[in-house]
Amino acid sequence: MLYALCFLLFVIGLYCAVVKKNMVKIVVGLAVMEYAVNLFLIMLGYRTNGTAPIVDRTYYDFSTHQVTDVFLNSAVDPLPQALVLTSIVIGLGCLALMISICIRTYEKYGTFDITQIRKLKG
Amino acid sequence: MSDIPLVLPAFVCIPLVAAFLLPIFGSFGRKGRAAATALANLATISLLVMSIASINQFSVYNVGKWSIPLGINMVLDGLTGLFLITVNLVSSAAMLFSVRYMEQYTAKPKYLSLFMLMVAGMNGVVLTGDLFNLFVFLEIASIASYALVGFGCEDEQLEASFKYMVLGEVGSMFVLLAIGLVYGVTGALNMAYISKAVQNNSANVVLNFALALFIAGFGLKAALVPFHSWLPDAHSSAPAPISAMLSGVLIKVLGVYALVRTIFSIFGISSTVGNLLVVLGVVNMIAGAFLAIGQGDLKRLLAYSSISQVGYVFLGIGLGGTLLAAKTDSVWASLAILGGLFHLLNHAVSKSLLFLTSGSVEMSTGTRQLNQLGGLAEKLPLTRAACAIASASIVGIPPFGGFWSKLILVIAAIGAGVYWAAALIVAVSVCTLIMYLKVHRYVFLGELPESQRQIKENRGSMAVAMICLACLCVLIGLVFLVPSLRAEVLEPAAKVLSDGVRYADKIIEISKDMLVCAD
């Protein structure tokens, strides 16, 4: 259910990026798509009532030198969180570049409407 | 084997370090800028030397000594070697060309820095053995290229950059979503481990959906035909050396390489996907060729021609994949794949040369509209010769490189019994011939316009870059004709694809060996 909602968010972002005529709205649509993917990655690793994936003394079995089953069954998956951090940073870079291009375009054309920004043809 | 693994990260590190050092030089005035340019050229040429040294090697490097599946690994195999050479060859030539060409722009050190970031991203994409790492490098290369397309900050360039960026980002998000889905099903991010998991679980609906997302995402980056609308704008608006990079290698690395690696090495080729690649290739070939003939702008014409030529690559690889999946004629399958990959190398060299000549024409005359040009043959003899050689190679006139790759494709198609594909390859070549005759007719022959009596040939680094690539266009046929070179360059690359998912076994085995050595 949650995954379906997350996918719906992705599709809303895609719709917004493809259909809207205003440059800023297109950028917002792309940002929504990106957040949907980030949310999806986070949900992949999420567990209800999970614990932070940090091994401390209570979770470590010194006799076998392995982490205990309690830890394995309760810890959330840390890898998607690392991925999301990376993807947020990438998204930030993209967003900054996109917004700056929007600003420069507005200075040149005096409008955000992509139907009026049409010097390229063919 | 012992010293090569140390070199692998250098393919990414050298351009990355250069990218962050170069802007510092920019603040030391004119001499600083000259030093930055020299340094950038040194970096690209040393990368080219390294990539030639790493041809036909196989090695794996674990980043930070973390063994897979815990860490990220870099893999150098035949396919990677071929792409490394292509990337670094074109980037050296484009960088040499920029030395003089970019004098007309301000902020040259920033340009050099972005250029280096793009090279770092592309080298990273071809080297990495980790799916998420591939996404990161893909974004590094893409973001640098968005900025470079809009580098001139004129109206058209900003518009093209925005268009490119929106479609490129949609593609990246598809890829990231697909990576998330794959991780959710297989619990791995390393390509070898994903491949293992996929083989045990091939009928999974989610994985098929992820594959579809990969094809759409990488297809957007490769400008496959329903998604091609950004390419002519972006490639014609960028500064000429950047157009050469974008058309010559960027669409191939981010699109063709990433797609082919995902399909062949991770998911394993099936006849459905193979047929899909053939159809996409055919549509690209035809649509690109017909759209190109009607163009009145030199660089837009070249950009549409790129769409058409990438179609040849997909046709060859798709045909090979279909035959592999049917498990009938493995000889013709590997020949088709070899033809596709060789055409990719040929197209990279000749199309980047064509874009460089278009830059030379534009710098001399100040325009690239075909109907405002004419009679440049005597004013720009060198540019004209380079353009003629590159066009001959792309059209497929013997003895230039493009002839051999098209010949291989035709032979493979006939050998496999797909006669319509062979006929189509020849027919589209005729269209290509028409469009390049048009270029010569309008740009180099005919009456010289009154306003252009005073123009001069571009000398210095621009001439050197064009001469080097023109020589390569002539000599590249040798890569196929000389058996030892073919066995070193092309056959290992084709073998990686025909081996398909056996890639995974090889990587995992080697990593285990490395683990034993480390202990």
Walk me through what this model shows.
The complex is a heterodimer of chains A (122) and B (519). Chain A has 122 residues and is mainly alpha-helical. Chain A has one domain: Helix Hairpins (Orthogonal Bundle), CATH 1.10.287. Helices cover 65% and strands 3% of the residues of chain A. Chain A is built from 4 helices and 2 strands, in the order ααββαα. Chain A has a two-stranded antiparallel ribbon. In chain A, helix 1 (2-19) packs antiparallel against helix 2 (23-45) and helix 2 packs antiparallel against helix 4. The mean pLDDT of chain A is 86. Chain B is mostly helical and 519 residues long. Chain B contains 21 helices and 2 strands. In chain B, helix 3 runs antiparallel to helix 4 and helix 3 packs parallel to helix 5. Chains A and B meet through helix 1, helix 2 and helix 4 of A and helix 6, helix 7 and helix 10 of B.
Distance between the terminal alpha carbons of chain B, to the nearest Å?
18 Å
Determine Rg of chain A (CA atoms, Å).
22 Å
Oligomer: heterodimer
SSE order of chain B, as H and E?
A: HHHEEHHHHHHHHHHHHHHHHHH
Any low-confidence stretches of chain B, pLDDT <50, length ≥5?
A: none
Number of strands of chain A: 2
Strand order of the largest sheet of chain A: 1-2
Beta strands of chain B, count: 2
Q: How would you characterize the largest beta sheet of chain A?
A: 2 strands, antiparallel
What coarse outline of chain B follows from CA principal-axis ratios?
globular
How many helical elements of chain B? Answer: 21
Greatest chain-chain interface? A-B, 35 and 37 residues
Q: Provide the β-strand percentage band of chain A.
A: under 5%
Order of helices and strands of chain A: HHEEHH
The parts of chain A where pLDDT drops under 50 for at least 5 residues are none
Q: If you consult CATH, what is the topology of chain A?
A: Helix Hairpins
* Mean pLDDT reading of chain B: 88
Structural class by SSE content of chain B: mainly alpha
Helix content of chain B: over 70%
Distance between the termini of chain A: 44 Å
Gyration radius of chain B (Cα, Å) is 22 Å
